[in-house]
Structure formats: C-alpha cells, structure tokens
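User: Please predict structures.

Assistant: First:
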Amino acid sequence: MQFATMNYKLSLADGTTQVVQIIATTFKKLKVWKLHFTNGKEIMLYKVGSEWLQRTEDYLEQCYVTSIGAYIDALESNISQKKLSV
C-alpha cells in the first residue's frame, strides 16, 4: 500500500545536488519510506521512536538519513496540523 510520493533535493559533499524520490509505504506492517535515487539505487528508511534508521544492507551516510528523516517529519507534521484545523 502506497501512501505518498515526494521529492527531496540532497546537497552532496562534492557540491553537487541529487533529487531523491521518497515513497511512503508499508513493509511487513511497518511504515517505511523508500528512497529512489536517479542512479537506480533504492534505500529504505524507518523510524523507531524519534530515531531514523535504514536497513542493514543500505549504506547511506547517517547525516543524510537524519536530514531526510527531518524533512519527512516536517511534512507529516504539516499534514497532521492541516487535518486538525479542518
């Protein structure tokens, strides 16, 4: 089941930027976020408490995991606030 799709622009250490497609979905009854990179690589993020994690077979630097997780948190917070105000 797919929930939402969004794009996120990463500024890499070498000065380049890369657009990542983020898809909110479920995996084994757990809400996860799949990241699709332009080179075809896919990484799965999930949240435990307030900490953003990735699968053990994924190798995204933790600073990017944290940054993308904060972006997702901000989007979900905005969506929740809009639902409450309706």
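Second:
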Amino acid sequence: MERDTFTTPMNASRSGGLSLRSTATKRDSLAAELERDPQLSTAKRQQRAQVFTSSMAHANLERQLVAAQTLKLELETKLREKDLQVERLERDRRWFADREKQEREEKERERTEHEEEKAKADGDLRTLRNTLSTLREEHADLVDAHSSLSRNTAQTIASQKTQITTLTHRASLLEEELAQTRGAAEERSRTIETLQDQFDELSSAQSRFARKGAEEESMNVVREELHRQATYLRSLESTNAKLTSELNMLRERHASVEVLKEEKRGLERKVTLMEQLREKAVKLEAELEAARRERQMWATNAAEASTPSKTPVSVTRNLAELRLTHARLLEEHGATAATLRRREAEIADLEKREEEARQQVATLESDVRALKDKVGRREDRAVLAEREVGFLQALVASFTAEEANEEHAVVDDAKAQRVHQLESLLQEYKDANLQLTQEIDALGGDAASLGHGRTRQELSAEVEQEQQQRLELQKSLEAAAAETKQHLDKIEELEQSLFELGGEIGAGRHVPPGVRILSLKDNPEQQWVDLRQAAMDRLKGENEALMKRLKELEQSGASASSGTGSGEELVPRESWELVNREKTELEDVVKQKEKRLLRLKQVYVSKGAEFRDAIASILGVKLAFFPNGQVRVTSIYDLCASFVFQPRSKSEGATMQLVAQGEGGPQDLPDLMHYWIEKEQCIPGFMASVTLECYENSKRSGGGNSL
C-alpha cells in the first residue's frame, strides 16, 4: 500500500468537534427554530448526518493511520533485520572471498609443487626404467649363469651319486675279500700249528733215532734237512707274523673305508642342503619377478596417464615403495648370489676332496690286489710245506720199517734211494725259493714292501695324514653347516622382515630409510595419540588405585565389615574423579545439545513466522499447523472464513480433505465447495475462489486497502 494515499484530517476533526459542542449548547433555541421551520430542521438533520458520517470517516482514517504506523514500525524493524542480515551476509561473503583467495593460492602452490614433483617423478621413472632394463639384462645373464650352474651341479651330483654307488659296491667287495683273507689266514695259522705239532713229533722221533745210534750219516743228512725244515718253518712263522700285521693294516684300511662312507653321507647331506638353498633361491627369484611385474604394471599405468596433472599421489607413493622394495630385493639377490657362489666353491672343494678319497680308494684296491698276490704266494709256500711234511712222514715211516728189518743191504739201497729223493726234493725247494725270490723282486723289493715301492712306515704315515685331513674336513664341514644355519636364519629373518614391511607398506606406516617425515606439532594424529595416551594414563592410574585398594582390603581381611562403612572408602579417589569428570563432560555435552536445540527451535519459529507471513502476503491466507497433521487455512480478507484440512489415505484421489469450516465466508460457499471439492477435487482452486470472493467483499465494504 502507498503512503501518499493517507492524509491526516486534524483540522477537520477540530472543526467538527467545535461544531458539535456549539450544537449541543444551542440545542434548545435551534429546536425551537426547527419546529417553526420544517425545511430548516431537515437541513439541520442532514447537516448532522453529514457531520456524523464525516466523524466516522475520520475515526476510520485514524484507525487506518494507526495501522499504517504500526505496519511502518514493523517494516522498519524488518528493514533493520534485513540490514543486519545483509551486513552479516556481506561479512560472510568477504570471509568466503578471503578463503577462496587463500584456497586459490594454495591450489596454485600445490599445482606448482605437483608439477615439480611430477617432473621429478618422470625423471626418476626414466632413471628407473633405464635401471630396470639394465637389471633385466643382468637378471637374464644371471638366469643363464644359474641355469648353466644348475645343469652342471645336477650333472656333478649325478656323477657323484654314481661314483658313490660304485665306491659302495667296491667297499662291499673289499669287505668280502677281507673276510676271505681273514679265513685263509686263520686256516694257514691252523696248518702251521699242525705242522708245528708234526715237527715236534718228528723231533721226538729224531731223538729216538739218535739214541739208537743207527745210520749216523743218513741221520746227519736228515738232521740237516730237518734243520733246514725248521728254518723254513721259522720263515713261515715270520711270514705269518707279516700276514697278521698286513691283516691289521687291512683292518685299519677298512676303518678308513668306513670314514670315507661317513664323508660320503656328509656330502649327501650337503647336497640336500644345497638343494634346499637352491629352492630358496628360486623362491626369492620368483618374488623378485613378481615385484618386477608389479613395477612394470605401475610403470605402464603411469605411462598411460592422459595428462601430467592426472597422476595421483598414490601412484607416486607406490612408485617410491616399489623403488625401495626393488633396492631391498637387489640387496637380497646379491646376498643370495654371494651365498650361492660360496656354496659352489664349497661344492668344488668337496668334489676335490672326493676325488682325493677316490684316489685313496684306488690305492687301497691296488694294495689289496698286492696282498692277494702275496697270499697266493704264501699259499704256494704252504702247499710246498704240506708236500714236504708228507714226504717227511713217509721218510719217518720208512725209517721205522728199516728199524724193524735187519737186512742191511736193503737198508743201504733204501738209504741211497731216500738220499736221492731228498736231493731231488731239496732241488725242488731251491727252485721254488728261487721262483718266490724272483716274484718278490718283480714286485719291487723284499717281503717288507707292499706294492708301488712303499713301505709300511710310509703307508702308516699316509694313513695318519689321511686321518688328519679327515678331521680337518669334518671341522670345515661343521663350520660350513653352522654358516649354512646362520644363513638360513638370516633368510628367515629377511622373509619375516619382508612380510612385516609388506604389512607396513600396505597400511601406509612404512618410513623408508633415509627419509624423514615432517609434521606439525599439533596435528590430528598427534591429538589422537595424546588422547589415547591420556586415556591410558587415566586407566593405569585407576587400575593402580583399584589394585592398591584390593591389597588394602585383603590385608585388612574385612571384606564383609567394609560394607558397613561409607561408600567413599570402597571407591578410590582416581575412579571417583574419572567418573566425576565423565559426568561433567556429559553434562556439558547435554547443555550444548540443549542450547543447540533451543537455537534450532528459535530458528524454526522465526522461519515458520517468515514462511507464514510470506504465504499470507503472496496467497492471501494464514496457515496454522497442528500436531495431529491438520492444517487450518484462514483468509486475511475475512477472518471468519477458516477451513480445516487433514491428510487422507493415498488410495483416494486427493491428498487432503476438508473436515471443518468457520462461520464466515462468501455467500455461495456451498456451491464453491460442491464444485471444487466434491466434483473437481481441487483444493487450491477452492481456496483461490474463496480468497477472490473475500477480497471483493472486503473491497466493497471499504476494507480493500487493509493490506
């Protein structure tokens, strides 16, 4: 509504008031005059009616003026509120502008830093690609070298297994031959004992022959022959002693063979350990290959990025983590390669030692063959001795027969025949001894030599040297086993570290070596850590107080009687302070929430009032909402024209239904309700029609400018 349409008829009211007072004072005279003049009285009545009408209009105008002034005050109040709101919005706008400027500068700085980091990352990526290509070539070379070494090692292991099988077979044969040699030596010992008994018998017979005094010359020959036989028996005894010493030496050699078997088993264990190390190296190479494939995938993803600015920070972080993992894997690969080379050197050393042991076995086999030849010679000698014993037995029998006969002529012929036989037998012995001497000379010396021109002292020294070497090899084997165990423990530690680092990297808590992470002193993480530490400290203090209280109760032994005391004695002060602090915090939280709810209610009330005022100004109706869901609609042009609506079920057409109405409203309200609500089911059309009718009625009655 416009302010120019209102005027202030103050003078008119004053003049009207004066006329009324003058009319009241002169009522008697005027009444007399009016009675006398009817036309004058009619004019006076019309004048009074006009004065009354003008006074009513003046009162109406005053009421409108008061309403306008009230509306003006309300509008000024709203204007001040709007100014305050505009000022607040302007302040917020300036703050947002400053924030936007700061964010723009920060984004520009971050973009510059991101471009620099991206350029640096691109350079690092190119360097890593070059390094990756170099490492691939080196890895290919290492793979080729490893494959060749694996093939050579497999071939060496196969040949060693074959040689070990052969040596085992040879050792079993040597054991069998040694057993046979022992049996033959025992049999020869028994034969020598039998010959010794026979010799004793012959000696007793010879003594008897000497007592009888017959055939002194032939008996001298027999004595010489017997003396020669005794000398031969003594040589047999010395030979038996030599064979016994050789048997002992063979037993020592057999012990050396057992040592070689033990070394062979140790070599097999080392080969098994090398197989395990090789499997470990294969696993590490597989992990290295997996890491390389993952790095290639990340490099491919980084290369396929559309613009430089689209590279995410996670890719850069993952690239750095992969770079560190790659360096660590390179170090582990170098350590594994060094361990592999060291193991290969140990294998070569063991192969060399095995070759030396094989040579020793060959030497022992040649010695065994020489001993077999010597045993054969001794068997030949034993056969000759048996033949000689048989001859001597026949000779003794003939002597006995000659003693029984007294025919000297026959005895002389027999003696001549026996002498001839003895001479022939002596010649055979000489030939046999000559043949044996030639065989010994052909073997390389006297009977004390054992083949290859080496004496027993040399062989004993060699055996002692071999034993020392065996002890050294055993010590080196134990050292290698300890070192292998250390390396295995180190490999397990590296695997555990790799697993833990994988978890740390996956969780984002890994800090690479040589990298320092800077953070603000008061950051969210530090606050969270401080809160956790404070909570832990409180819990520790409370726990200590409770434990102390429990100890006091246990010492006092008054668990039941303590219930009669005050409750403060049962609860530690730390627990009470903690509960009180939590209570205070909860009360503060409740107060803050209540304050927020009160503010929200005030905001809702103010916004609801603004909403209702806006609807009243725009649609011309006032709204009132009730808790049961009903809505009361009142026209501002006719306060008696009110209608109450409530929601209805969704199965019906309209969403609202009319449940009550006021006393006022237009005259054709039933027709409007029948048409708009019952027939058209359009509540907005009904309210628009009612508002229009009420506005027209208000305008006709003179209150159209009430807005």
